[in-house]
Amino acid sequence: MLKVMKMPKIGVNMTEAKIVKLAVCEGDAIAEEQLILEAETDKATQEIFATMSGTIVKILIAEGDVVECQNPIMILGDTGEKATEADIAALIGAPAPAAKAEAAASPAPVPAAAPAASAVASVPATIPAAPSAAPVLADGGQRIKISPLAKKIAKENGVDPAQLSPAVPGARITKNDVLEFLKRPAQSRTTASVGEIKDTIPFTGTRKIIAERMNDSNQNRPSVGLTLHADVTEWLAFREKLKAKGVSVSYNDLMVATVAKALSEFPVVNSRLNAEKGVIELLNNINIGVAVDTEKGLLVPVIKNANQKGLLEISADFKEKAARAAEGRATADDLTGGTFTVTNLGMFEIESFIPVINPPECCILAVGAIVKEPVVEGDAVCIRPRMQMTLVFDHRIIDGAPAAKFLQRVKHLVESPLEMLL
Amino acid sequence: MSIKTVREALNEAMREEMLRDETVMIMGCDVGVRGNPFGVTKGLMAEFGEKRVRDTPISEPAFTGAGVGAAATGLRPIVEILYSDWITLGMDQIVNMAAKMRYMFGGKVNMPLVVRAPFGAGGGIAAQHSQSFEAWFNHIPGLKVAAPITPADVKGMLKTAIRDDNPVIFFEHKRSYQLKGEVPDEEYTVPFGKAAIRREGSDVTIVAYSQMALKAAEAAEDLAKEGISCEVIDLRSILPLDYDTVMASVEKTGRVVVCQEANLRGGLAGDIVAEIIDRGFDLLDAPPVRVGALNVPMPYNISLENYVIPGKDNICSAVHKVMSNL
After folding, report:
1. What integer best gives the mean pLDDT of chain A?
2. What is each CA distance from B313 to A349, A378, B225, in whole angstroms?
3. Who among B281, B283, B285 is closest to A174 (CB)?
């Protein structure tokens, strides 16, 4: 009996996945829950497991394809069973989705009419290939949503539509998007004539998701940044004391614990806007994301319920998740559910910066490098280790004063780590 | 220029043509003694006599057929269908006789027939008095179809219709008779196939005719306050239809909303959208959007009627949709 296995949806936010690697071949007998492929979803590379057992009669996808959740990926059957194009079409009700990526090269044969329709004599078994009616496809094989006018202007200017992106994520690419693209200096485009470009980096996967989210954040969130200095003398001393006891925690670990403590005192900061329902949602859990630079770009592993965890737990949790992120093996769970993000560029000698809010969170805290500075204390100038922190907040959700109070509290906790115990 | 109502403008057009050409005559139910239920033909029987302004029995096939015969044999009849809903009864005479004769007789017969037909909905006159059938006649080769709305246009275009040697279905919006506007005092006509740009704009083209052209202009006014610049085209005659003006506007805006008052399915708006795509797919920056009534018999209940007839808000929503890029 032939049956269809579909791309499972394994994360709340997963809508589609790019096939990175196939782990099985046609003819293989597979068991339910056996690893069949690796796929890139939201940001993480996921292992995808079989949802049924049987012999693989036909694999409908290829490495590099982007497949929507619940779209057919394989046809399974009994040992030795074969499937014709018509069988496959009858099972999945459409030309094999593998055609998505191949359509441009070789038009897939249109399936024969389903058995029920075969009584109609004039229905041809196959319809001759339509002449190059292939849709505009992106590198990953996804169809690009572009208006006819935009497509024409892009063509006239030698712009590959795959390089264009709409002003609003998910919208159709319009004339204006092409004109905006053409306005950019030639070097910052990737069209151009031979010789001008050394190499191109695909604007897909993680990079594209980062871009969409940053765009969304910047365009749809009126954000304000607040900056202050914190004296970290005691913070450093606290860390040194732990070290002397053989306990090693990073500045990031300390920062996560500090922010978690402050958030537990300022519930309105640990929130998100639900415009559809017309409410600001104050969140139960304090889940702190920490921005991590990886080969694939920015990833944000999330320490769940950070306010309920001790420093050691936070440290171990972060280490594990950061390592997975660095190897490109972060799970969807590692990267989702954050309610607040901390980002630190101190290691690169950046003293202060203004980050972009990680939607749908309300705030992001930028932490700068620790720098020894002259500070006036009483009537004397002394040298103190200091660090700048910038809180960027969504002004739709909170106002300047409460945001400032929250940041001030973070500063006090940094300057007086003992208060963490209160 | 003088301010006149659509009713007065129509009456003047017929009177002036009857004075100018003695072959022009009027036929229909209540056109004579009563001067038509809307008062459009008031005074004409008194002025021109019972021979040229004839009250007929209540039989659309009979008086429409008489109009076809009169037109074929040398008169310029204006046949009035009291409510255009009942044009169905005269359909065979219009479709199989009037529309075909010039072709089938190799041009040896003229068919200077005008069928005046009040159409459109509003005012709670229910399912059999509210319909707009222009799409049917647009489908028939051999006819011309007019649907002007301003007093100046209805006067000038009715005169053009009376002088035309082809059968013309002349749709008057029955809610427009009291509509006032400036009408030139001197002799003039308004040609078929020449649309009027009621408002210039750069973001969206709104194509409309008859009452919907007025609603489109109101919608454009509101949308301008939001910063959306709409070009409003009043087609005036829908067969022939001035695609040159429509396409020039679409070329400018890249976005188009087409409005009709008739229910949407199988309507003229769909036909216009198809023609726009045929002529200028590459000019479009967004999928065209149609506006029309819901696909239901017109309700008698006023609240339901208002819900079914497309209004200014529907046009605004359509413009928002065509601007959304989603």
Report:
1. 83
2. 57, 68, 14
3. B285
